[in-house]
């Protein structure tokens, strides 16, 4: 009885395969639309079949093992025909194995269905993950485009600022050259023109400008200041700061002068007046006294003290355009989040 059932089941499986093969090899027996539907369905189920092929291969391996067992059982059956007890034991063992095989087969089918369902869930999660990543990439791409636009704007501002700085440096160098040429006739020990921190410094010694303790400019000093004023009249975009400096020798109070603060401030003021009377707009001039507190040399020798007794006229080109660029950059940076 067992052999008949098992043989019937084995005969049933090839029959199904034969039926499927017949359906595939005889497309003329169905309508064209039916055939196209079958092809579409076959394509749609291909992915599921691929996932199930692994399970099928395992099943085939198990079935092969079962076939081997059945072959062995048939051999045992022939040998145990004479011994009914052994035949019965073999039959019971075969039935047990068959039952286990059937149970294993059912579990494999269930596991296959579960594996397919899990795989579909994984595909769904991957698709959702991919959509999220694409959205993030879109956001990053938009941010990158904005960053590129900001960078281009900053580069344009930097170019503008670099050009403005170059023009400012050129203006300072031109101013130094004009002032140096105008004051070329004066002794370099008494009058020096130099660049410092983007400004033109005209340093005039006390010997050129003043008598000791005096706050009134001598005629030779007036000549130098008039030549300087002639240059400044042509350079309308230059601001002028006049700084008076002294050595560290205390000033004896005399003629309304209390100390070195008064002396340095009054000398700077007198020079400022001479520049304005020579045609320089008063609004461009600032006069200040620095007393003894910004020396250029140590007050330890008569020569060094003489170097500290000086007046410095600081010429600064107006940088309105440059400041506007800097303000625009600062405002743009502050507006960004």
TrEMBL record:
Residues of the signal peptide: 1-32
Coiled coil regions in record: 35-76
UniProt xrefs under Gene3D superfamilies: OmpA-like domain (3.30.1330.60)
Annotated GO CC locations: membrane
Ranges where the OmpA-like domain occurs: 197-319
Keywords tagged on the record: Coiled coil, Membrane, Signal
Pfam families tied to this protein: OmpA
Name of the featured protein: OmpA family protein
Lineage: Bacteria, Pseudomonadati, Bacteroidota, Cytophagia, Cytophagales
